[in-house]
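[Backbone geometry]
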Amino acid sequence: MRPIAGATVLTAAEMRAAEARAFDRGDDAFAMMQRAGHACAAAVRRLSAGAEVLVLCGPGNNGGDGYVIAASLAAAGQSVRVAALGAPNSDTAAQARTGWRGPVEALDEVSGAPVLVDALFGIGLSRPLDDKVVAALSGLRNAARLVIAVDLPSGVDSDSGARLGCPVPVDITLALGALKPAHLLQPAAALCGTVRLLDIGVDESAEARVVAPPTLPAPGPQSHKFNRGMVAIMRGRMAGAAELCATAAMHAGAGYVALLGASMPGEPHALVRRKFDDEALADRRIGALVVGPGLGRDDGMHSLIERALASEHALVIDGDALHLVTSEQLRARGGQIILTPHAGEFDALFGHVQGSKLDRARAAARASGATVVFKGADTVIAAPDGRARLAPAANNWLSTAGSGDVLAGAIAACLAAGLDPLDAAAAGVWLHGEAARRCGAAFIADDLARALTQARAALA
């Protein structure tokens, strides 16, 4: 059982393909089910502290895992009972059922236990839970002090994270073999509790992974302010947003940050305030140019966007600028571009793309040729080549004005330091989330920007 940072994320189809590759190498489905069940049972033993366990088994292979869990717990001397929704409907689950020597109670008649293991439905569920199942689950959940889900809480869509009916939340989810999008995408992610990963012997290679603590370049004896990374921010109508972005870039590790546009001198004094003109924009030392925070959307702003696109700099495009460009413009421009839309900005730029948030981010990245950071309570980062990173749930207090400006600055600092756009975006998202964790509660964006220093120091 290990933490999820950096773990592979597989859709249901990708997980089945990974299992099929294992079978091609000589493995068999029951052996894999036994590995999964024994790994879950070991985790349940550690977490339950000897309390009685009730295992709920569904008719499919998730239920088969449940029978193996129950048999393993019983063999270890732990008090365990089993309740089932129905008879197994697969050969593998039926084989697992024969390993459980105790009685099997009906789901709607069973009494509760201190520890509840939900092995009713896994990645194959595609329809809403029956009301009777929801009622039984809810009652048993209320009677338990600890609820553990096997692979996924019953009642969520594995790929989209959608709720299928009215699923009940769990305390811990034991992901089998790889994470699934639902462990990270809302609203399902909020139902999963703490997610831990169990190895069941499948090939985990995939293009999507969980955001992990990044490896960022640290200054050495030959470092100076420019080779550490120079960030320039184009100031728009709301000076505060651009200054927040600039402050964040400095605290995230940029060696030199310039605010391009009229601005009164003030703190932080380390911020360089320059007139916005062709000479400032042409500075070849700029490693990342940010446009959009507090920009405004009037006609005069279009010319600023056009000048940014005409430059040769790597770009971070945020906020209002996302309403003033098209995906066709971005693809034609090429180069290193990172877009940071929230849901409204995403729809304004790309329209109402169908599919899960991961599907939508990938489609947008392909269409624009840019790396897309699709922000929100769940954040998905996608590159044009299909690679993706999904961020675990962050501090809910990030829902405050200016937090997006801070994220843009953090990403720009990582891009200016020389990281690939996908890696820079993921690093900025990680720093942003870690800074929020350190801030705690009721913080403002100014606090968040300053906390990036401690977040960056945590990587040393």
In short: The radius of gyration is 25 Å. The chain has two domains: 12-203, 230-457. The longest strand covers residues 286-291.
